[in-house]
Amino acid sequence: DEYGEIDALLFDGLTRRDGTGMTVPALAESWTYDEATHTYTFHLRADVTWHDGKPLCADDVKFTIGAILDPKNRSLQRPYFEDVREITAVDAGTVRIQLAVHNEAFLDYMTQPILPAHLLAGEDLAQTGFFHRPIGTGPYKIESWEAGKEIVLAKNEDYYLGAPKVDRFVFRIMEDDAAEAEALADGTIDMAHLSAQNAAQFRDAAGYRYYDMKST
Q1: Distance between CA atoms of 114 and 134, rounded to whole angstroms?
Q2: Which of 2, 153, 176, 178 is the most exposed place for a label (fewest CB within 10 A)?
Q3: Which residues contact 150 (CB under 8 A, 6 or more apart)?
Q4: CA–CA separation, 12 vs 25, rounded Å?
Q5: β-strand partners of 203
Q6: pLDDT over 90 (residue 187)
């Protein structure tokens, strides 16, 4: 779960989920859907740049979905995109995705993080060092990564929705759920995603905010 949370801070999808769980625009400011051909046309925001300063473009979207569908990459997201028949970069700011059949969940699938084609096209995704120093469009950038210990993120001052209010996030890599609870109790960390058993001690404890999260 922690790594999934880091992905969401480093990268954006064409869509995102708002606080109520609704699918809303993100990197795509708008889209249209042609029911007869099961085709989405996404119009990208013009004010988005990658962390290295390069502009987001339609080729990035085409590359990302193509990489997911390529069997050699063994992407866990591949089943979500198997309805994709054709992807066309119409121009730098427009991408057209035709599906084989109507898929009611497709806009939700487009919360998928978009990857930079200018850094990854032609690379072996299993061998590239990109994922140890990722470049995204998200509100945070990688500041440092000490394998097995911690990942530090710094805010992206150029984020298209405005610079985040929190300057830095430090993600500690911990042995297990019990170790996270112990670190939360002694003040070593500020936040943790705990099992119900380990979270119970914080439900009514002073100085803590406790959130119940429903899952499937």
Answers
A1: 12
A2: 176
A3: 144, 170, 171, 172, 173
A4: 11
A5: none
A6: yes
